[in-house]
Every structure is written in structure tokens, then in C-alpha cells.
Sequence to fold (231 residues):
Amino acid sequence: MPTWNTRLPRRGTVNAFELKRCQPTGPTKGIITCNNLLCCDTHYFGGRTIPCERIVNEHGKTIDDSRCLACRARQPWRPHAYVSVFNPKLHEHFIFECTDAAAQPLEEYFNANGSLRGCLMNAYRASTRPNGKVTIITSAYDLRNQHLPEPPNIIAALCTLWRLPQTAVNTQVENNGRITTNRDGDVLHEFHLPPDNEGDPAMFQQRREAVLTELASNGNGQQHAKRTKHS
Fold:
């Protein structure tokens, strides 16, 4: 017998948020829902974006880059800023990414107001080129008639987007404004270095099974492995 209900099911914790960048075809607008921005150095490596994992000091200077595969391959890194944004017209909650240079107005707004939450953001490119300069205009938004959703866990959402399995992500350590996501390098090896990035079904399934087997052998992800096997 089917089960009917007059209410929508409660949604659990969801880390799957769309990552948006400013497009040359039009502006990206919305109300920022997080209190502050997050910054992370990234590489474009192996056909996709991955976080840089070099160890830095309190001034951002590199101490050790031996743990970062892209750094060892001499691939350049670039700092990016992330905020969660809500578009009330589309009822869409997403994560916005831009360079640290483009994010300067966000930092200025935070310094002036103590929080980014409730900031109306309008980001656009000055030209129609995909890599054209991004300009962000900020202003305070009247929230008296607008309910803002709670901000997502941006770090967890980005780990999902970057294909970092939750079983490999440990406690985040905050020190002097820096947040570090510790991880198990052995578990992440297959995710960092895919044999190809063409989406071949057979190769993807082979890599997937290898990673699940490794997780299970380490005592992690056993239930996930069993569930995947029967799906």
C-alpha cells in the first residue's frame, strides 16, 4: 500500500550544493547567507579543480609542499574565495566562487558590517570573455520581508564537489583564522589521480570498486560498500 502525506518529507543534511562562477552571459546575483567568506588555494590538475594541500605558515608562505600532488608536479596554485548565496527569485541556494582579487569588496563589506549575511551581491564580468575581469557590487539587503536559509557547511560542500570522500576527511583544525581539513592520503589517492577524465563507464567502475575495497580494508565505509554492491 502506498503511504500518503500532506507534508513534504524533512530533508536531512545535504552537502550537494551547486558551485557557480560568474558567467560572461549575465550577472550572478543573490543574498549572501554565510557570515564570512572562506579562502582556499586550488589547482587545475588532472582535468579538474582540486584543493592545494601544501603546508603554509601564518603568513601564507609555503613550509612543505610534499603532500600536494599538484605542487610536486609543478602546477601553479591560485587562491579562490567562496560564499554561500541565496537567490530569492529562483529560490536557489548555491556556493559562489571567485578569485581573491574579485572578492575584495566582500572583505570590505565584512570589515564594515561584521558579517556578510544579508549582503546583496551582484557579480558580473566587464567583458563577454570567459576569463574577463569579475566585478562585485555589494549593498545591504532589507531582510524584514525576506527569510534567509541557514548557510551550508561550505567546507563539507566543497569536499563533496572535489570528490573527497567523507571517510577520508577528519577533524578541521582552526588556528589563527586558518582552517585545515586533515585527510588520509592513501584513501584519497585514487580520487586525486584518476587514470583518465573522460568518464569511461568501465574505467570508472573499476576505480570505484578499488577505492571502496581500500576503504573497507581500512575499516571505513563498509556499509557504503555493501549498499553500493546491491544497488
In short: The radius of gyration is 20 Å. Residues 121 and 157 are 21 Å apart (CA to CA). DSSP finds six helices and twelve strands in the chain. Residues 201-217 form the longest helix (17 residues).
